[in-house]
Amino acid sequence: MTQVPNYSSICILRLSAIGDVCHAVSAVQAIQKTHPNAKITWVMGKVEAMLLADLPGVELVVFDKKQGKDALKKLKHSFKGQQFDVLLNMQVALRAGFVARCIPAKVKIGFDWARSKELHSLFINKRIAPQKEAHVLEGFKGFAQAIGVKNYSPTWDMPYTLADERKADELLGPAYLSGKLLVISPAASKAQRNWLPERYAALADYAHDQGFNVVLTGGPTELEINLANQIIKHSHCTILNLVGKTKLKELLCVLKRADIVLAPDTGPAHMAVTVSTPVIGLYAHSNPARTGPYLYQDYVVEVYHQNLLKQTGKTAQQLPWGTRVKGDDLMSQITVDSVKAMFDHVVQKELIK
User: What keywords are assigned to this protein (predicted)?
Assistant: First the structure.
């Protein structure tokens, strides 16, 4: 039997984004169980650190990309005199490669050749095992397995406090806490990945007619605020609008309170997974088998595969894994009826005992 290596210090490098660091948490916590005596340091982005601050047993080092070269200098200085046993470089972006250069480690593990891009190979000296058609989370599992962690079923212990939960409850109010709750987190980082506001509204009305309270969540950007206002304008039911009103940990607690979350390819969908809330994911541009809500991939409504075949003449299995499809109106191909049908399926499977 292969002996598990003994590590005293492990550095994790995954800067962004919210969904990806949520995936990575499960790998980090599996590593903690296998290497309970190792000091674990995680270098991540500023926004992501707002969600994962006080992650049990993990020291977070914030890399603020907006500071440019100064951020790299600060990082290098903060690690002066240290030497990690191993760096797990879980990000192939060139920026992450420059960050990896500032982290002193005996071994720097990165992705296999098939997933290496943006000069990733220059910043590592060891690779994880190749994986075929893997979800992003499975890739992170590969890093854990590379340092002796046996195969595991992902679990999460997310860092939020009683105060965060109380604030979420205060924002929701007694009326929204007393019944079934649908949370719609309608906005992705790019407008083309968002479903149409009138269709979100139709689902809100449909859920409301079935006894659900409906809440909108999201950040304070102009895109998210405008989308929420449009949804409310088209809806006939009362919707609680929390867009721009929650910090990330409070949002996590709102998602935890939900019975169902409806979202496109966006961070809150993956946040919901970490607190075991079923997610109906809406996908058109990226393969949900790679980036969908990990525990709820059977609840995805997608038009990705048909568009990939139309644009390339090939299936996902015949192309480089993770190939995206292009188009500004692809999400309009997802019909209200198809999402209603999935909503009914999720209600039947998750809520009716």
Answer: Glycosyltransferase, Transferase
pLDDT in tens, the chain (353 residues): 456 778 999 999 999 999 999 999 999 999 999 999 999 999 999 999 999 999 999 999 999 999 999 999 999 999 999 999 999 999 999 999 999 999 999 999 999 999 999 999 999 999 999 999 999 999 999 999 999 999 999 999 999 999 999 999 999 999 999 999 999 999 999 999 999 999 999 999 999 999 999 999 999 999 999 999 999 999 999 999 999 999 999 999 999 999 999 999 999 999 999 999 999 999 999 999 999 999 999 999 999 999 999 999 999 999 999 999 999 999 999 999 999 999 999 999 999 86
CATH of the domain at 308: 3.40.50.2000
Q: Which domain holds residue 130?
A: 9-146
Residue 112 shares a structural domain with residue 172: no
Q: How many other C-beta atoms lie within 10 A of the C-beta of residue 254?
A: 31
Same domain, 80 and 222: no
- If one counts the domains in the chain, the total is 2
Sign of CA dihedral 156, 27, 280, 198: positive
User: Are 333 and 193 part of one and the same domain?
Assistant: yes
64 and 120 share a domain?
A: yes
Q: Which residues contact 245 (CB under 8 A, 6 or more apart)?
A: 171
Q: How far apart are the first and last CA of the chain?
A: 44
